[in-house]
Amino acid sequence: MAKSTTEDLAGDMRRRLDLANATWQSGSQGKGDVQIGFIEGYVAMRDRRTPEVPALIFNPEEWRAFVELAREGEFDLT
Predict the structure, then answer these.
(1) Which of 35, 45, 53, 69 has a Cα-to-Cα distance from 4 of 20 to 30 A?
(2) Is the pTM of this model over 0.90?
(3) Dist. CA 37–CA 47, nearest whole Å
(4) SS3 assignment, position 63
């Protein structure tokens, strides 16, 4: 059974979030393996193929920075 709570992976114990009730949305217009969920003011990101692996948790500022860098191609591995 998948864990329903997670904590940020930076090790600062920011807070625990209960992701059991998160509504997950697929990225890339439903074609990709990345899913995001919004919960309690945070953004969680996970791989839909392995939802039992803890999600990455972003605060709003971190999420904005991530999205901006992604749009600029910072994470393009091709």
Answers:
(1) 69
(2) no
(3) 11
(4) helix
